[in-house]
Design a protein that fits this description.
It is built from 1 helix and 11 strands; from the N terminus they run αβββββββββββ. The chain is α+β, with helices and mostly antiparallel strands. Strand 6 and strand 7 form a beta hairpin.
């Protein structure tokens, strides 16, 4: 028993401990992954540079928080934004757009959006600019079914500097 073997055969205590540790780490990893993804908005990588509206992110908002953040990656130059709402109404209070250049733009929206519905076009300062992330503050509007609102964010590409 001094050689670390606690089971009969060639299975040592260190091998047993290593396998148990791997299982625990795997379960912990899955738990952390589930917790982190439960409240994060989904970022959609924009690969097209064509003119027009492109979906740049989406999230499901509920009654537990009042702020969401969407990172923008890929072809991230946009001139305007629209928020589309499905499943349940929300009241969008403020939007803050963070640019790659380091500055940001605060937009006081204060607009209820029915489901299905959308905000008016929100023009960005300085025309088409590279966006790093978008943060929006909202209030969920209670509904009879207790449904969560699904919000999609679209950005407008004008390709102004390619003209």
């Amino acid at each position: 028993m001094n050689d670390g073997t606690i089971f009969r055969g060639s299975f040592s205590y260190s091998q047993f401990k290593s396998k148990q540790m791997k299982k625990v780490m795997f379960i912990l990893f899955l738990a952390i992954l589930g917790i982190n993804n439960s409240g994060i908005a989904q970022t959609k990588m924009v690969i097209s540079d064509k003119k027009g509206w492109h979906k740049i992110g989406e999230t499901t908002v509920d009654f537990t928080k009042d702020r969401d953040e969407v990172s923008v990656i890929g072809s991230d130059k946009f001139a305007a934004l629209i928020f589309k709402v499905e499943d349940a109404p929300i009241h969008i209070l403020d939007i803050e757009v963070y640019y790659e250049s380091g500055d940001n733009q605060k937009v006081n929206v204060n607009f209820p959006v029915k489901a299905p519905g959308q905000t008016k076009e929100i023009n960005l300062n300085g025309g088409e600019r590279s966006i790093k992330k978008i943060v929006f503050v909202y209030k969920t509007i209670s509904n009879k079914k207790g449904e969560k609102a699904h919000v999609e964010i679209y950005g407008l590409k004008t390709n102004a500097e390619k003209k």
